[in-house]
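Our preliminary data section would be incomplete without showing what the modeling component actually yields. Below, a chain of 321 amino acids is followed by its predicted structure, encoded as tokens that our downstream tools consume directly.
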Amino acid sequence: MTSFFAVAFLGTLPALAELGTVWSDFQYYVSDFQNYLTNNISDTFNPVELQTQSAITNASGDLNIPNPNAATESVRDQIVQYSVSDKFENNPAVYSTTVSNEVNRYITRGAIEGLLGRDGQNRLKGKLEDTEKSVKDSSEFVQKADEKKQEKQTEIENLVSEDFFNKLLEKVKGTAEEISTGQASLESQQQVAKVIKLAWEGLSELELQNINVQREQTRIMGETLGNAIQMRNDFQYSNLNLADISQQMNEVNRVRRVETSAEVARLLRVTSQTDLFRKNPNSPSVESNPSSLEENPPSEETNLPSSDNNFPPLEPDEESR
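Predicted structure:
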């Protein structure tokens, strides 16, 4: 049981990726990414967590990361098709747009978790330490190669004097063809072989150290390429959020223009009614001075109502009768 729990505990620890293991690093990143999307979707998208989860899962490709465009389109279609709403928004079209924007932000937060989360920072720390070690190893390889070069050069100089080849030719008393046919002395052949051996060892050491340096440089270049690809992925999420912000600003500006147009129409309607009221001849002018009315009161004749049905006064005789 103890060994089982030990193995299980070790299995839960984040893997320390080495420098240059680009594909393994990306798999660890995607694992943290997907864990965040799975563990936090209920708190973020209640009551549409099922629709959102299915949309994100179906939008994942070969790299096991979701395509934000496909995920948001699927979420909008499901919300509009089934007329899903919440307690704050009862319009499915508006609610689908809100949820799709939140999906984009949710995917971006998952990408951040995969890179800057606890496990992501642990792997990043290992990468930085491995990179520093690789740079130091490359410097040590170059230094060792230079030391080996100086050492072999000193051995060759101690073995071969300035007139070594002149003395060799005098001992042989022949041409180069005689040396190649084995007519030279055994001592001369041994000295020449030793010089050649030292030169070959020096070149081999230089070549080996050069290969080691190239190996470390290849690891660093591979890691740089992997980081550049990951950076492109993060830039796309940033551009997606900027696009959402731009869309929201356009919607706010459109609502503001509609409200301004409605306010202008209302003012025009009120103004037109006021103008009609002022043009009525029976209504007093608003701009007239009340004092002028007191100085020039209207005549009694104008105040008496006129009617064609007024009867003349009766005669006294007719009243008595």
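The two ends are 139 Å apart (CA to CA). Residues 1-14, 300-309 have pLDDT under 50 and may be disordered. Preliminary results of this kind motivate Aim 1 of the renewal.
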